[in-house]
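REQUEST ID: PR-0412
SUBMITTED BY: lab tech R.K.
PRIORITY: routine
TASK: structure prediction, single protein chain
INPUT:
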Amino acid sequence: MTQCNVSCVAHLKWQQSSRMDSKSYLVQMNGNGVHGKALNGNGVNRKALHGNGIHHVNINGTLYPTKMKSRRQRWEVKPSEMANNTLNPIRAIVDGMKLTPNPDKPMIALSIGDPTVFGNLPADDAVLQAMKDAIDSQKYNGYAPSVGYLKSRQAVANFYSCPEAPIEAEDVILTSGCSQAIDLAISVLCNPGDNILVPCPGFSLYKTLAVSMGIEVKLYNLLPEKSWEVDLQHMESLIDERTSCLIVTNPSNPCGSVFSKEHLQEILKVASSHCVPILADEIYSDMVFPGCSSPSVASLSSDIPILSCGGLAKRWLVPGWRMGWILIHDRNDIFGSQIRQGLVKLSQRILGACSIVQGALESILNNTPQSFYSETISFLKSNSEICFSELSTVPGLNPVMPSGAMYIMVGIDMDHFPDFKNDVDFTERLVTEQSVFCLPASAFEYANFFRIVVTVPEEMMLEACARIREFCQRYYRPRSCDSNDLDQ
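STATUS: complete
OUTPUT:
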């Protein structure tokens, strides 16, 4: 065993043991530069150290160049640019609100898009049994492939495939909720400096994800007077050579609107003429009220490449199970292998969706009775009609009747409510005085509306509407009164 002494300003001792061709060496640093010499086992000197603070450490006959690095003098750990650029518009609005409910009235939260909050919309027994069976089988406790089990992907493909838009297992990527599906879709289609077209009002996550990745968000208008149809002329005017994705949300969060087949075809015509791929957010697929229909975007086009995002969260009432998917529709092979491979690579960042839910997925899709879907939709329609009917007669409010999903948007004629600056101020005071929390539409980039979630029990919906009416009656001012006040 050869003992090596290394002197580098302070005397640091390092011992190396080897049966190989060991060398002993001495390194000495001083203020005039760096010099040194190496000695082999026979006492032969060999140059081992060079100027500029770089020396070669000789271990077992091999020279490894190393550079003397300066030591940090203090701790300084900063968040990344991506973290700093990540902001949820809903949180930005809500966190700044002063939400102190009236202690004399129990809180009614109409702000959270979670159908399970009040316990009145439980998952179907067949869905729960599928999960129990998956757990009891002990087959799904390990890692699944990052894109999902082949059997589970095939089950999703079978469930959504149709003659107009056929898909196979290879066209399905399973994700950790629909949120991750949207994240992967934006990530695979867009580079920093690109832009995406996003509905306004629209789901806040699109902007949160895009801005954090250096992608510009261009908001295209939806028209409340036309049941939230797209302003096609405005949407088309936003497209340029850096537009990498058009997001179409149908049925809509936050509007509860459902586009007709004809309107979807008009949207597709714009995308086709400008060669812009579509990200179709269809998490509320088939949550459509009776009398309406909403075909998938992919079923209406064979030439536009489409990534359709969905999941179990809303239709099956299990948002916490975090099971989503991307359906790849690419019949003209425009995406080709590169987009598919890109999605696979991106999915490997978190190694895929929950394996237990994947194990239950085939049974959930195949065994959930139609009556479960029908009863859920019937309840949502009834609550929406109650809310619309009650608030339509409140002076100063203009609700827009939804056709699906779980939401209704209510316009505020701010000219009649001079005590409030905007929708945020209005909804903040509604909490303070009436303990009713509705989400101001500013959280969706849309002013002077608020969104109501219609999943609460019926009696709670009626109570909430009565409190909103009382609140509005207290602060409503006819325009003639406003004019008289200004003349005084």
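NOTES: The first strand starts at residue 3 and ends at 8.
REVIEWED BY: pending
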